[in-house]
Amino acid sequence: MEMQKDFFSNLENRLGLLSDDARKGLLFLCLIEGKMEFIDLSELLQAPEAIDELTNLSFTHADPQSIEVESDTNKALLQRYKWSEKVSASRSLIVYFQNKFLGKEKLGDLWLLAGNKENAKSEFLSALNQYKVEQLHSLVIRVGEKVSNLGMLSQTEEIEVYQNMVSSYECCGELAQVIVIREKLLENLTIKKDVHQYASVLRALAIDYSQQGSWHLYKQLRTKAANIFRKNKDFKESAVEFMALAIKAVDDLNLTKGLEYCEEALVDSQMAGQVEHTCKSMAIKSYILAMEGNYSSGQTLAQEALQLALRNNLLETAAFVYRKLAGTFEYASDFEGAKSVFDEAIGFCETEKMGAQTQMCYSCLSWILLRLGEWKKALEVCTSLIRDPSISNPSINCILCHGYNKIFTRRNSICRKTCTKRHLFSPERTIYVDVPFIAPPDGQNL
Question: pTM of the full predicted structure?
Answer without folding.
Answer: 0.72
